[in-house]
Amino acid sequence: MSTPQPSAPQPPAPQHAPQPPAPQHAPQQPAPHWQPAPGPSSYTSPIPVVRTHLGHAIASEWTKIRSVRSTMWTLGVFLLLVVGIGFLVALQTTDLDYRDTPYTIPALFGLILGQICLITLGVLVVSSEYGTGMIRTTFTASPQRHRVLAAKLIIFFAVAFVVSALAIGVVGLFSAGLHSGAGGAPWGGTVVIGALYVSLLGVLALAVGSMLRHSAGAITTMLGVVLVPAILPAFLLISESLRPVAEKVLEYNAINSLAAVFDVGGDGGGRQLAVLAVITAAAIAGAFALLDRRDV
């Protein structure tokens, strides 16, 4: 009989290590509100952004024209010529000279020279910016080039008309006071029409300056427009076949047109004013057409 084999000793059961205490949960903090990183789309400029319009361009051109020396000099010389020469002529006239003529007729002699000042200023309003290169800054601030040119035309015409009407009116008042017993012809209309004529002549110069973009060239061109028709008929009248042309040139040149506007001859200058308005409108159309087609 076999003896039982002693069983192998069993390893002691492993004793479990004590479990660490459960961590105490900290009180939950509210999750921070997520904000997108600042970028171009989320930036808010402190400067208010508004859509530009013609009024802004007009305000800019008004600042330019009243802050440059050329405006003060040319308008100052214009007033000196029109008022100064007008006063001198009025002092040399008598009551008999105003029976059928307006009291503003002495201003005509000053305007014959003074119109050159408005022509010069009209050219400089636009050509000076091309000469200095500042026109690039202007077109960068206002990419709509037609708006810039329209603002220049509006501001210049307003300034030229007001100054011209003021000068003619002052001469008319002086003549009326000096020859109050003459009972001259109505002269209020000549103030408006005379100022309108020389202002349109200045606007024509501005349009020519915009097309040529050169101060000396534009001023020379406009002086030719004013002076050449005044002396050309003397050469055209030599030939009988050219006499009708000479008579038309003589009728519509700038000097005789001004005389007609001041009712010298009795037609009132309506046709001359209409011809100048058509020529000026054509020049403005050409200036607008060329403005966007050429680089600065």
Spatial gap, N to C terminus: 128 Å
Report the strand count. Answer: 0
Number of DSSP helical runs: 10
Low-confidence stretches: none
- Please report which band the strand proportion falls in: under 5%, 5-15%, 15-25%, 25-35%, 35-45% or over 45%: under 5%
Largest sheet: none
Report Rg: 41 Å
Alpha-beta content class: mainly alpha
Instruction: Summarize model confidence as the mean pLDDT.
Output: 84
Helix content: 55-70%
Number of spatially distinct domains: 1
SSE string: HHHHHHHHHH
The geometry reads as globular
3D structure, described in words:
This protein is mainly α. The protein has one domain. The chain has helices spanning 54-67, 69-92, 105-132, 135-141, 145-178, 188-212, 215-236, 243-252, 254-261, 270-291. Helix 2 (69-92) runs parallel beside helix 5 (145-178) and helix 5 packs antiparallel against helix 6 (188-212). The longest helix is centred in the middle third of the chain and has 34 residues, at 145-178. It is globular and about 80 Å long. The N and C termini lie far apart (128 Å). The mean pLDDT is 84. This is ABC transporter. Residues 1-42 are annotated as: Disordered. The chain crosses the membrane at residues 72-91, 103-127, 148-175, 187-209, 216-238, 273-291. Residues 1-39 have a biased composition (Pro residues).
